[in-house]
Amino acid sequence: MKTQKIIIYFVIAIVPVFVLLTVLGDVGEGAEGGGIQRSIEWVTTYVLPWIFLYWFIKLVRKIK
């Protein structure tokens, strides 16, 4: 149970780090804005479905 919490916190921590790296990378290259928007699009496209799937599976197991 403790390792499961550690994994969950680790995954939750990776998302903001990725957003920050993307935004700071764009600022460092001199790109004009849009970094935050692309980061949010990436998170909603790739990360949120996996989080939803995790909680859905957890709910199904609890119902059984």
UniProtKB/TrEMBL annotation:
Transmembrane segments: 7-27, 39-57
Recorded superkingdom: Bacteria
Record key words, sorted: Membrane, Transmembrane, Transmembrane helix
Keyword Transmembrane: yes
Protein name: DUF3923 family protein
Species the sequence originates in: Paenibacillus lactis
